């Protein structure tokens, strides 16, 4: 996951609508079923999907009153914590 990408996507959700990102995730998930995709291509799609889910999570935290910077840091801390264990 890339914090700058999540931050940018969070801003996109604020400026537009979460539904755009949700529909994009659904489209990318459908693409993963293409049998001819290479592992590297699947990795890129997976990274995009992860970042989009991260942005949605950060957006939910900011909607509940958490400042954006704190929400981003909290989310990334959870991600790093889950990787370390």
Structure commentary:
It is built from 4 helices and no strands. It is mostly helical. It is globular and about 45 Å long.
Topology:
Elements: H1 3-15, H2 18-31, H3 39-63, H4 68-84
State the gist of this model.
By secondary structure, the protein is mainly alpha-helical.
Runs with pLDDT <50, length 5+? none
Shape: globular
> Biggest sheet: strands, sense, closure?
none
Average pLDDT, rounded to a whole number, is 93
Structural category is mainly alpha
> Tally the helices: what do you get?
4
Strand tally: 0
The radius of gyration is 14 Å
Helix content: over 70%
Strand content: under 5%
> What sequence of helices (H) and strands (E) makes up the elements?
HHHH
Task: Determine the N-to-C terminus distance.
Answer: 17 Å
């Amino acid at each position: 996951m890339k914090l700058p990408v999540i931050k940018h996507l969070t801003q996109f959700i604020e400026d537009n609508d979460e539904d755009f990102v949700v529909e994009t995730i659904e489209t990318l998930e459908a693409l993963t079923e293409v049998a001819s995709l290479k592992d590297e291509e699947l990795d890129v799609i997976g990274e995009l999907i992860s970042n989009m889910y991260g942005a949605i999570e950060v957006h939910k935290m900011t909607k509940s009153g958490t400042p954006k910077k704190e929400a981003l840091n909290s989310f990334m801390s959870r991600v790093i914590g889950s990787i370390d264990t």
